[in-house]
Amino acid sequence: MEFAAFADRAAAIEAESADTAITESVSALLADADDDLATLARFVQGRVFPAHESRTLDVGPRLCYEAIARAAGRNVDADDVEARLAETGDVGEVAASYEFGGQRGLGAFGNGGGADGLTVAAVADDLATLAAASGDGSQETKVDLLFGLFNRCEPTEARYLARLVLSEMRIGVGDGTVRDAVADAFDVPVDAVERAVQVSNDYGRVAEVARADGESGLAAIDLAVGRPVQAMLAQAGTVSEALDDWEAAAVEWKYDGARVQIHFDGESARLFSRNMEDVTDPLPEVVETVESALDAPAILDGEVVAIDDDGDPLPFQEVLRRFRRKHDVAAAREDVTVRARAFDCLHADGDDLLDAPLTERRDRLDALAPDDLVSECRFTTDPDEVGDVERRALDAGHEGIMLKDPDSAYSPGKRGKHWRKRKPDVETLDCVVTGAEWGEGRRATLLGSFELSVRTDDGYATVGNVATGITDAELEELTARLEPHVVDTDGRDVTLDPAVVFEVGYEEIQTSTTYGSGYALRFPRFVAVRDDVSPADADSLARVERLADAR
Fold first, then answer.
1. If DSSP codes are grouped into helix, strand and coil, which group holds residue 134?
2. Phi and psi at residue 370, in whole multiples of 5°?
3. Range of the domain at 283
4. Given CB 3.0 to 4.6 Å as the disulfide criterion, which of 95, 119, 130, 532 pairs with 158?
5. DSSP class of residue 32?
6. Residue 417 annotated in active site
7. CA distance 315 to 499
8. What is the DSSP letter of 255?
């Protein structure tokens, strides 16, 4: 297809306002694509390469402006291009405003030029050559190649070439549009297209298979070790919602790290970031761990966490230092140690597991990898067990917990109700500590759970107990602070004078017959001691009632 024909089609799509009309236009483009089908399925989204490839053009705006300026003539420079862009806000419109075609120089006559004009295949080839340029002089090579392309462009072609180069196609076409257009153009089910895209991460290949082999061909597309797929995502949620919606919940620690997809072909490992960038080289110790731990091909989903000398987690920014390191990796490894924790298994020893329930995927993961590579997961229907997992996660210095539907499949790229991040506490109460309980085991000499109360007209009424969000060091401080206020002890139970106020976060407030207030804080979490608030100024039962009614 001539690139001018593609540009005209892109302009027509951009002029459409209705989603159905846009999809119909993309469908018609794909149906007419001939040998350029895979390329057009990507170009129309503003992509040059399949989404699973780490290959990029590595062309910044300034380099593109220089190429446009060179093709525009001797009296135009990159600053002029940038000034026009400031006025219009669209690099495509700026490129289309110049008269190209009169310049000569290296790259002025490249692939697909001549009487037949610039072709889609020629643009794809030149952009692939541009992406491969590296080392000394590579930036000038990129400018030369882009200059050669722009120099052969009519205004409409220049508009969409500039946008394509900077990944700013802006014609209203997204993944869903191309999915539906492929289904319509080649008479295959939308679900079949979506599944094929999930496992291949390549709309171009999916379009070609749909055209050549139909639904059966799409069904035959499988995961491939070494080809990353999009990560399944979580939405914010609450523990009570999860336990209400599912028969049980899988509870995992939520790490303050970076997502990583681990691919092991039986001999060597490759690692990919959440954005599917190859991060194998910056993380040699993770590669070593995987290669020594696994003995069968696998694709695992997990997290990389930075740790200190004691094995405690470091902030997320420390992980990024390693992910971004391209040079002197050995020194970076000495500065920041990382470890991987896998929490899902997408492929194991020849078996694709995307459609398998989480329970089965976790079983395969546990059978495949040793404990030190696998994150903890507990399946439970008990809110107290959920609270225990959360407490241990927080004590270990992690962000909190993930809640997952045990029956759910793995849906690449989807953010849905089957995975839920424990929502940060959005409300807090200042509660008076009126009782406590001695801990067990290594915490036997410390107060480990604290009775929370709110003010009433004639005293205090209990609203719950808190043990979550408190480190061992904090427990020592709290025990020392509260012991002088002990008025009675019965076994492990302690009654306290109302002298200390805790700020407590919570998930929600429910009516309850368990506590004297008639209400219960769901999943309370210790935030801090309120030294600036006296028991007489702590929150009241009336406020608890108002908050409960508001929800």
1. coil
2. -70, 165
3. 233-422
4. 95
5. T
6. no
7. 35
8. -
**CATH of residue 160:** 1.10.3260.10
Is 131 within the bounds of a domain?
Answer: yes
pLDDT at 241: 85
In a domain, 218, yes or no: no
Rounded distance between C-alpha atoms, residue 5 and residue 26, angstroms = 13
The encoded tokens of residue 108 equal 């002025």
Q: Is-contact 454 464, C-beta < 8 A?
A: no
| CATH code (residue 305) | 3.30.470.30
Strands 298-307, 258-264: pairing kind: antiparallel
Pair (115, 151) in one structural domain:
yes
Output the CA torsion 321→325→327→333 (10° steps).
60
The confidence score (pLDDT) of residue 115 equals 38
Task: Output the 3-class SS for 304-369.
Answer: EEEECCCCCECCHHHHHHHHCCCCCHHHHHHHCEEEEEEEEEEEECCEECCCCCHHHHHHHHHHHC
Tokens 């509660």, located at residue: 431
pLDDT of residue 116: 46
Boundary-marking domain end, from 165, 189, 209: 165
The answer to whether the CB of 322 falls within 8 A of the CB of 332 is yes
CATH number of the domain residue 461 falls in? 2.40.50.140
Catalytic residue of the set 254, 404, 414, 417: 254
Domains contained in the chain, number:
3
Q: Which helix (H) or strand (E) holds 395?
A: helix 383-395
Residue 109 within any structural domain of the chain: yes
Co-location of 240 and 360 in the same domain: yes
Kindly give the interhelix angle for 155-165 and 61-72, rounded to the nearest 10 degrees. Answer: 160
Torsion of CA 58, 60, 66, 69, to 10 degrees: 110
The reported pLDDT for the residue numbered 387 is 85
pLDDT average per 10 residues of sequence, the chain (551 residues):
97 95 98 96 95 89 95 92 92 94 53 62 97 93 96 96 94 94 98 94 96 97 94 86 92 92 97 90 94 96 92 83 77 85 96 96 96 94 88 84 96 89 73 94 87 94 90 89 91 93 89 93 88 87 87 59
Scored b (16 or more CB within 10 A) or e, 492-530 reads: eebebebebbbbbbbbbbeebeebbbebbbbbbbbbebb
Residue with tokens 């190859």: 278
Closest C-alpha to 11, from 173, 153, 167: 173
Per-residue pLDDT, 318? 84
The verdict on 320 and 454 lying in the same domain is no
How far is residue 165's CA from residue 147's CA, in Å, rounded to a whole number?
Answer: 12
